[in-house]
Amino acid sequence: MRLRVLRVALVGFGHVGRRFARLLDGPYGRVLRAARVRVVLTGVATEHHGRAIAARGLRPRACLALVERGGSLDALHEGPPLRSTLQMIQRVPADVLVEVTPLDPRRGEPAVSHVRAALRRRLHVVTANKGPVAFGLRPLRALARRQRRLFLFEGAVMDGAPVFNLVERCLPGVRVLGFRGTLNSTTGYVLSRIEQGARPAAALEEARALGIVEADAAHDLDGWDAAVKGCALANALMGGRVVPSAVRRRGIRGLSPAAVRAAAREGAHIRLVVRGKRVGSRVRVRVGPERLSAGDPLAGSGSDSALVLETDLMGELVLVERGGTVDQTAYALLSDLLAAAGGEPAQSRRGGPEARSRARPRLPGAAPPGRT
How many whole angstroms separate alpha carbon 94 and alpha carbon 53? Predict the structure, then answer.
């Protein structure tokens, strides 16, 4: 069976980036081969462990071993030295950029610049970073359309659960009127453990060990992560133009552990909830702790996430993810990578605002899906 080569550059090598790289040599590789695709990792850029380009390919295991023992990827680099990640994006021989750098909830950088630079080079972009969706969705989609490339971001909200694909592919003609969700795994985990008697600081360290905490835990605890995800949903599903600074936001730092435990004894659960609603011609987003009944779909435990979509033609739709980890986020990258490669069943992308800008062009020189 002839395999199509897909050259991939990876920017960001934290929990998600490393998990994705590790799985490329295992189950992800098998899934890609079944779709007649062979991934060659031609570049990796990290914040603290150097950058490397290798036109013939970098071995994921070698990159992982080097970084995990505190080394630098510079040792694997071929060619003139790289002074920055942007320079790597401009020089790497690739078809797709996978962007998984840490979140900057106030500016969306450096992710927005990474995505823009890759699209200008006519690379497809796959990201699990909600920053570009919250801060630059319209111009980035317009750039992708002009360049006939894809800007894919399924992992930006609820990890690998198909939130954006659900609306765009499966709900033609449906209008999303509003949403509410528990979208931050860290606060859900911390509040659940407080209910069980754990101290907040200890619960946060447990969540950190699971790899679900943002690089700066304040982004989780103060509601920034939830606010950015709310903006991403509002902009992608409701045609909004919402930025995180406009979100009415309150995190969980001020919550009394005693109040959290008292609510649990009464059969309720306090969770950090993000809400989006259309008000006139605008979409509004707010974030804050709410007391939920035990039967509410948002009242999950641990790192569960849930989203309720209010629609015009389908009423309320509920999507629940149990026990979210970096594995689910890494899977979203695989799913979008298959779409960029044309290695999925042909489907029109309809439903969401500007959805047609994500129509799937083939890679240069690639055969149509199902043919070699």
Answer: 10
Q: What is the pLDDT of residues 32-79, one digit of tens each?
A: 999 999 999 999 999 899 999 999 999 999 999 999 999 999 999 999
- Report the length, in residues, of the chain: 372
Phi, psi for residue 166 in degrees, rounded to 5: -55, -50
| Closest by Cα among 226, 207, 211, 243 to 289 | 226
Q: What is the pTM of this model?
A: 0.88
What pLDDT score was predicted for residue 50?
A: 96
Instruction: Tell which phi-psi region holds residue 79, choosing left (phi > 0), alpha (psi between -120 and 50) or beta.
Output: left
Spatial contact of 274 and 227, defined as CB atoms under 8 Å apart: yes
Residue 221 to residues 260, 287, 309, 324, Cα–Cα distance (Å): 15, 12, 24, 17
Structural domains of the chain in order of their starting residue, each with its CATH number: 4-165+327-358 (3.40.50.720), 176-311 (3.30.360.10)
Determine if the peptide bond prior to 110 is cis (ω within 30°): yes
d(CA 290, CA 133): 26
**Which residue in this structure is represented by tokens 């996978």?**
98
pLDDT in tens, 184-228: 999 999 999 999 999 999 999 999 998 889 889 999 999 999 999
How far apart (Å, rounded) are the C-alpha atoms in residues 91 and 280? 46
Lowest mean pLDDT among 50-64, 85-99, 118-132, 332-346: 332-346
- State the Cα–Cα distance between residues 320 and 80, nearest whole angstrom: 47
